[in-house]
Design goal:
single chain, TIM Barrel, Sulfite Reductase Hemoprotein, domain 1, 2 domains, eight-stranded parallel β-barrel, five-stranded mixed beta sheet, 12 helices
C-alpha cells in the first residue's frame, strides 16, 4: 500500500480489487505456465496471489486455452485478466471466466481488416458489459499501429501516446468508462515520458505502469524502479507490473519486488540515480509467460547477459524474446534480436533476418554478429 498522493483518476473495479481513485496502487503479475497445463497454472496463479498479487494475467490463444481457463477459474480465487494478443474475437469465450480483458490496439489491425478498429473495440465493449469485465488498453512500443508510427517518425513516444488517446476516444464515444490504459517500452525514459504525456492529456484514466521486457534481475529491477519512482512520486500510476525474466517457480518474485518498490516510494527511499541513456550495452528480455515455446529461453537470456559482458561499454541493444507473438516485431528496433521458437532461435539485425539456429548454435553466432557491429563502430587506428 502507498499513501503517496496520486492523480484523481476514476475507479475501475477488477473483480475484488479496485484500480484508480483513492485506492492503493495494485500489483500484478502474469502466469508463465502454459494455460492448458491447468494444475501448473493454478499453482502459479495462487503463488502470485498469496505473495500479494492483486491481479493475475493469463494468455489465451485458442479454444483449447479457453477450456483450460474455465477450469483455472474454478480452482483459483485470484482476480484474472486475460491477454488476447491477436485474436480479439476470443473475448466472447473468455469473458465469463475473467475479471478484465487486455487488448493491444496495434494487434487489432491484424485480423478482419475490413472492419475498423472502432468496430472491433465496440465488440469488446459489448462483451465486457455483458460479463461484468473491465478492459485494459495495452499499448506496447513494439506493436504500435504502422500508420501512427509513420505519422510520428521522429517521436515514437508520441506514437504510443496517440494510440492510447485514440482508443480512449473510441471508448468514450461508446460510453464505456471501466477501462485502464498502459503505455509500455523497454526503456525507462520512454516509459516515464509516455505516461507523463498521457496523464497530462487524460488525468481521469487509471494507468497501469510497467517497463516491458525489463530483463533479468538485478538490471530489470533497477530499470523498473527508475520508471516507477519517477512516475508514482508525481502522482502517476494506479497499478504496476514488474516484468522480469524469471524461471517459472520464481514468477511470484515480481510481486515481491513491486511491493518493495511501492514501500520504498511511500517511505521516501529513492534510488533513481541510474540513468538509462543509450551510452552502453543494453540487454532487454521479455518476462517469461505462457507463450514461451521453449523453457530454455530463460537460460538463453541469462547466457546472453553473461557472454556479452565484454561489450558492456558499447552503445548497442540486444533483445531476447521468448515467442513468435511478440518476438518478430519487438526485436525490430534492437541492433541484434533473438526470438525463440520450439527448437530454433531466430537471429535478426534490426529488421533484417540473419537466420535460425539451434539453442546450442545461437551464442557463437550472436557473438560473431556482435563483434562485427563493434568493429564497424570502432574508428580505425591511424
Amino acid at each position: 500500500m502507498t499513501t503517496t498522493k496520486r492523480n484523481a483518476t476514476r475507479p475501475v473495479r477488477v473483480g475484488s480489487v479496485t484500480i484508480g481513485g483513492d485506492h492503493p496502487v495494485a500489483v500484478q503479475s502474469m502466469c508463465a505456465t502454459r494455460t492448458q497445463d491447468v494444475d501448473a497454472t493454478v499453482e502459479q496463479a495462487e503463488s502470485i496471489r498469496k505473495a500479494g498479487g492483486d491481479v493475475v494475467r493469463v494468455a489465451v490463444d485458442n479454444p483449447r486455452d479457453v477450456e483450460a481457463l474455465a477450469e483455472v477459474r474454478r480452482q483459483t480465487s485470484a482476480n484474472l485478466v486475460v491477454d488476447l494478443q491477436e485474436n480479439y474475437r476470443l473475448a466472447a469465450q473468455v469473458a465469463p471466466h475473467v475479471d478484465k480483458i487486455r487488448y493491444n490496439p496495434g494487434h487489432l489491425y491484424h485480423h478482419e481488416r475490413e472492419k475498423s478498429p472502432a468496430q472491433k473495440v465496440a465488440f469488446l465493449v459489448d462483451v465486457a458489459r455483458e460479463h461484468d469485465c473491465a478492459l485494459r488498453v495495452g499499448v506496447n512500443c513494439g506493436s504500435v499501429d504502422p500508420e501512427l508510427k509513420a505519422r510520428y517518425p521522429e517521436d515514437d513516444i508520441q506514437a504510443m501516446v496517440e494510440s492510447a488517446l485514440e482508443h480512449c476516444r473510441i471508448l468514450d464515444d461508446l460510453g464505456f468508462e471501466r477501462f485502464v490504459v498502459s503505455l509500455k517500452d523497454s526503456h525507462p525514459r520512454k516509459v516515464i515520458e509516455g505516461n507523463r504525456r498521457f496523464a497530462e492529456a487524460r488525468p481521469d484514466v487509471p494507468l497501469h505502469l510497467g517497463v516491458t521486457e525489463a530483463g533479468i534481475p538485478p538490471e530489470g529491477v533497477i530499470k523498473t524502479r527508475v520508471a516507477f519512482e519517477q512516475l508514482i512520486s508525481r502522482g502517476v500510476g494506479d497499478t504496476i507490473r514488474v516484468s522480469l525474466t524469471l524461471p517459472n517457480p520464481r514468477k511470484y518474485e515480481e510481486i515481491v519486488v513491486g511491493r518493495q518498490i511501492l514501500a520504498d516510494i511511500d517511505a521516501g527511499r529513492f534510488r533513481s540515480v541510474p540513468v538509462f541513456d543509450d551510452d552502453k550495452l543494453n540487454i532487454i528480455s521479455c518476462p517469461s509467460c505462457s507463450r514461451v515455446e521453449n523453457e530454455r529461453f530463460v537460460e538463453l537470456a541469462e547466457a546472453v547477459k553473461e557472454m556479452t559482458v565484454y561489450a558492456e561499454r558499447h552503445a548497442l541493444t540486444i533483445a531476447v524474446m521468448g515467442c513468435r507473438v511478440n518476438g518478430p516485431g519487438e526485436t525490430d528496433d534492437a541492433d541484434l534480436g533473438l526470438w525463440c521458437g520450439p527448437t530454433h532461435v531466430n537471429l535478426k539485425k534490426r529488421t533484417e533476418t540473419v537466420g535460425a539456429y539451434t539453442y546450442d548454435e545461437i551464442l557463437p553466432k550472436l557473438r560473431q554478429e556482435l563483434d562485427q557491429l563493434i568493429d564497424a563502430r570502432t574508428p580505425a587506428a591511424v
